[in-house]
Design a protein that fits this description.
Layout: H1 3-39, H2 44-52, H3 55-64, H4 71-75
Length: 76
């Protein structure tokens, strides 16, 4: 592959990674806002757990937050 082709591929890969990180950050922000609206200020342990979860689990929690009675119930 020509140098300019390599550079172009690397840029495209970097953009893709940036979009994925942005989506994850957006999902986390929305979920935190929903949880704070429903349960009040989040304890530190809950915020740390949320930050460590993969996107698939954040999506699951965003649906379950509407039915959970507490932060503990949601994150167990």
């Amino acid at each position: 592959m020509h140098n300019s082709g390599i550079i172009k591929a690397e840029r495209q890969e970097g953009r893709q990674e940036g979009r994925q990180e942005g989506r994850l950050e957006g999902e986390l922000t929305i979920l935190r806002r929903l949880m704070e609206k429903r349960f009040g200020a989040l304890p530190r342990w809950a915020a740390e757990k949320l930050a460590s979860l993969p996107p698939s689990e954040l999506e699951d929690l965003s649906e379950r937050v509407l039915d959970a009675q507490s932060v503990e119930e949601l994150l167990r």
